[in-house]
C-alpha cells in the first residue's frame, strides 16, 4: 500500500520538498527525515507539549499534525528561530534563571512562551502559568521558567533590553 | 505509538468533500483540526483507510453576522473564537469559555465544528451551543437541513449527524443588551476535560429573568440543561433565596453519570456549586 | 463491569427465542455487526465494529452458549479481541418470561475490558455498554415485527478490575 504524497513547505526559511506517507506526523518528519532534533516526542497524544513547533506563525502539536497537512505551509522549529528576536531574549533569560536542566521540554517551552509574548504582552505571572500549563517539565518545578518568561515580558514592557548572560 | 497506514485526500470544496465521504463511507474519516482524530489514530483506536481533509473547504470558514444571527463556520478554530471581535460583541459567552479548552497549541488547530460533531459531554462548545440556542446547519447528499442544538446531542458521543453529512456552520442569535452570561468550569488542572461545567445565560426585563439557559457539561452522557431550574427562575428576580432553591432543583433533576475521576455524588454536589456561582455573578 | 436489565417485547416467547438464536436476526440487531456465523449449536462467531465517539474498533469474537433451556433461558460466555484497541471477556444470562403484553427478556452481564480501551475508556465503556444494549433491543424488537416496551432502566455497576 503506497500512498506517498509529494509535499512542499517553507521550513526554517528554506523551501523544501519531500515524498512521505500520509500517516507521518510533522514532528517525526522533522526529526527522522530531516534530522531536526529540536522538537521532541513525549506522549504523542498532544498533552505534554514537547513536540511543539510553529506552523503558519502559530504553535501546534507536531504529534497531532500530519506532515502532509503542512504542504504549502511555513514551518519553524527552534533551530530556525534560535538567537533571533524574542527567542533570543527568552534564551538569555532561561539561562540566567536556570529554566532548563535536561532540556527535553525547552524547545516547546520557548516556542509557547514566544507566542504568549507576541499575543499577550501584558500577561502577569498567573497568566504565564496558565499559558505554559500545556508544556510539561519534569525537572525544574516550573518557577524558574515562569521567572524567565516574566523577565522578558517586563523588559519589553519597560522598553529595556534583556541582559545577555555573561560568563565571567 | 504511530498510526496505521492510510491514504489522504484534500477536498477542494463542500461538494467534493461530500462526494468523497459517500464514496468511501465507513472507511473514511474527516480531518479538520485533527486534535481528537489524530490522538485516536496514534493509539490505533481507529484505523481508517483514508482521511478526507476538509480544511480547504471555504463554505465551512469564517465568522459573520447575517441579519440577526451570528454565523460561525465549522472550521473556525478555538483561538479564532477567543480573539474575534464579532464573538466578543455578539456571543461573549464563547470568548469567556475559549481559554478553558485544552491549551493554546491545541486551540490553534481545533475547530468549533469538530467539537460539536464529536459531542463529548465534557467539552465546552456543546454546552455553550445549548445555552445560546444555536442552530446547526448540516449538509448531506440530499441537501441542507437545520437542527436546534437541543435536538442535536442525542446520546453519548452521538449527534443527529448522519455518516454521509458534514456540519457546515452554526447560527446563534446575536446577544441582546439585556443579556448576562456566566461560564464556570472545574477541572483538576487547567486544560483538562471538565470535572463539571456550566454555560449559563439569562435575559432580563426590569430586573426579572425572562429567559434562562443553564447548560451543564460533564455531568451526564450528553450536555444537559436543567430545565426545571430554568423554568423556576424565569419570571422571577435573582436573589439569595432563589439561588438556593434553583440549586436544589438542579441537583434533584439532573441524573449525573460518574466518570473516571468523579462519582455521581461529587458531580451532583459540584453542579450545584457552579450554579450558585453563576447565578450570583449574574445577579443584578 | 456489570450490566443488567429488562426489556418487554411485544412478541411471543417462541418468536423471541427463535430470534435470539437466529444469526440473521442477530446480524441485523447487533449495532455495528459486520459478520456473524453459527459454528455449531453452542458456538457463534462474529465481527463487530464498536463505534463510540472518535473510536472505531473492530472486535472479532466468539460466543459460547450453555445451560440451554429452550424458550426459557440460556447462559453465554463471550470473548473478543479488538486488535490494538484491547480485548473483552465476559458472561451473560438471558431469561424469557411470557406475559400478557409479550415477552419479558431479563438479562445480566459481567464483562471485563482489557487493553487500551480498558485503561482509558472507563467512562466510555460503561455509558456505551448501556447504549449498545438499548440499541440492540430496539433493533431486535423491530426485526421481530414487535414493539419494545422498556420496563426498567438498565442497571450498571462498575467493578474495579
What does this structure look like?
The complex is a heterotrimer of chains A (168), B (284) and C (161). Chain A has 168 residues and is α+β, with helices and mostly antiparallel strands. Helix content of chain A is 36%, strand content 15%. A five-stranded mixed beta sheet of chain A has the order 2-1-5-3-4. In chain A, a hairpin with a 2-residue loop joins β3 and β4. Chain B is of the alpha+beta class and 284 residues long. Chain B has two domains: 175 residues, 2-Layer Sandwich (Uridine Diphospho-n-acetylenolpyruvylglucosamine Reductase, domain 3), CATH 3.30.465.10; 104 residues, 2-Layer Sandwich (Enolase-like, domain 1), CATH 3.30.390.50. Chain B is 35% helix and 27% strand. In chain B, β13 and β14 form a beta hairpin. Chain C has 161 residues and is of the alpha+beta class. Chain C has one domain: START domain (Alpha-D-Glucose-1,6-Bisphosphate, Chain A, domain 4), CATH 3.30.530. Helix content of chain C is 27%, strand content 52%. Chain C has an eight-stranded antiparallel beta sheet with strand order 2-3-4-5-6-7-1-8. In chain C, α2 packs across α4. Classes of the chains: A alpha+beta (168), B alpha+beta (284), C alpha+beta (161). At the B-C interface, α2 of B face β4, α3 and α4 of C.
Amino acid at each position: 500500500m503506497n500512498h506517498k504524497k509529494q509535499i512542499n513547505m517553507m521550513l526554517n526559511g528554506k523551501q523544501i520538498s519531500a515524498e512521505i506517507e500520509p500517516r507521518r506526523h510533522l514532528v517525526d518528519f522533522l526529526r527522522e527525515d530531516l534530522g531536526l532534533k529540536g522538537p521532541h516526542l513525549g506522549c504523542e497524544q498532544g498533552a505534554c507539549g514537547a513536540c511543539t513547533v510553529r506552523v503558519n506563525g502559530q504553535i501546534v502539536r507536531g504529534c497531532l499534525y500530519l506532515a502532509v497537512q503542512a504542504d504549502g505551509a511555513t514551518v519553524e522549529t527552534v533551530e530556525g528561530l534560535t538567537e533571533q528576536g524574542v527567542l533570543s531574549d527568552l534564551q538569555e533569560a532561561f539561562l540566567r534563571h536556570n529554566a532548563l536542566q535536561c532540556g527535553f521540554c525547552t524547545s516547546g517551552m520557548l516556542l509557547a512562551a514566544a507566542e504568549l509574548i507576541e499575543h499577550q504582552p501584558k500577561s502577569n505571572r498567573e497568566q504565564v502559568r496558565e499559558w505554559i500549563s500545556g508544556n510539561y517539565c519534569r525537572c525544574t518545578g516550573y518557577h524558574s521558567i515562569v521567572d524567565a518568561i516574566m523577565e522578558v515580558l517586563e523588559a519589553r514592557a519597560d522598553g529595556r533590553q534583556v541582559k545577555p548572560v555573561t560568563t565571567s | 505509538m504511530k498510526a496505521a497506514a492510510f491514504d489522504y485526500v484534500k477536498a477542494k470544496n463542500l461538494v467534493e468533500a461530500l462526494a468523497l465521504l459517500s464514496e468511501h463511507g465507513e472507511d473514511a474519516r474527516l480531518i479538520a483540526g485533527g486534535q481528537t482524530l489524530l490522538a485516536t489514530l496514534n493509539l490505533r483506536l481507529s484505523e481508517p483507510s483514508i482521511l478526507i481533509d476538509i480544511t480547504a473547504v471555504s463554505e465551512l470558514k469564517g465568522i459573520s453576522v447575517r441579519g440577526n444571527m451570528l454565523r460561525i463556520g465549522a472550521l473556525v478554530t478555538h483561538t479564532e473564537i477567543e480573539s474575534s471581535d464579532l464573538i466578543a460583541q455578539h456571543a461573549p459567552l464563547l470568548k469567556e469559555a475559549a481559554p478553558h479548552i485544552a491549551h493554546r497549541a491545541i486551540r490553534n488547530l481545533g475547530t468549533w465544528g469538530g467539537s460539536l460533531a464529536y459531542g463529548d459531554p465534557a467539552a465546552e462548545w456543546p454546552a455553550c451551543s445549548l445555552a445560546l440556542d444555536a442552530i446547526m446547519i448540516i449538509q448531506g447528499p440530499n441537501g441542507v437541513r437545520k437542527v436546534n442544538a437541543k435536538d442535536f446531542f442525542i446520546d453519548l458521543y452521538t449527534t443527529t449527524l448522519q455518516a454521509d453529512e458534514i456540519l457546515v456552520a452554526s447560527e446563534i442569535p446575536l446577544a441582546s443588551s439585556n443579556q448576562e452570561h456566566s461560564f464556570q468550569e472545574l477541572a483538576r488542572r487547567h486544560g483538562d476535560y471538565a470535572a463539571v461545567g456550566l454555560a449559563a445565560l439569562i435575559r432580563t426585563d426590569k430586573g426579572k429573568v425572562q429567559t434562562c439557559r443553564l447548560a451543564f457539561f460533564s455531568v451526564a452522557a450528553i450536555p444537559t440543561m436543567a430545565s426545571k431550574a430554568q423554568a423556576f427562575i424565569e419570571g422571577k428576580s435573582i436573589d439569595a433565596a432563589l439561588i438556593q432553591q434553583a440549586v436544589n432543583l438542579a441537583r434533584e433533576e439532573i441524573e449525573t453519570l460518574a466518570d473516571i475521576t468523579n462519582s455521581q455524588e461529587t458531580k451532583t454536589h459540584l453542579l450545584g456549586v457552579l450554579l450558585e456561582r453563576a447565578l450570583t455573578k449574574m445577579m443584578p | 463491569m456489570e450490566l443488567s436489565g429488562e426489556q418487554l417485547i411485544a412478541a411471543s416467547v417462541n418468536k423471541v427465542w427463535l430470534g435470539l438464536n437466529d444469526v440473521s436476526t442477530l446480524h441485523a440487531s447487533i449495532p455495528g455487526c459486520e459478520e456473524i456465523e453459527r459454528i455449531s449449536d453452542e458456538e457463534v462467531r462474529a465481527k463487530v465494529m464498536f463505534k463510540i465517539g472518535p473510536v472505531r474498533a473492530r472486535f472479532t469474537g466468539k460466543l459460547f452458549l450453555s445451560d440451554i433451556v429452550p424458550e426459557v433461558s440460556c447462559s453465554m460466555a463471550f470473548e473478543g479481541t479488538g486488535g490494538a484497541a484491547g480485548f473483552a471477556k465476559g458472561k451473560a444470562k438471558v431469561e424469557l418470561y411470557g406475559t400478557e403484553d409479550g415477552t419479558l427478556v431479563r438479562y445480566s452481564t459481567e464483562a471485563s475490558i482489557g487493553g487500551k480501551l480498558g485503561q482509558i475508556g472507563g467512562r466510555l465503556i460503561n455509558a456505551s455498554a448501556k447504549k449498545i444494549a438499548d440499541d440492540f433491543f430496539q433493533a431486535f424488537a423491530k426485526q421481530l415485527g414487535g414493539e419494545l416496551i422498556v420496563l426498567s432502566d438498565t442497571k450498571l455497576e462498575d467493578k474495579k478490575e
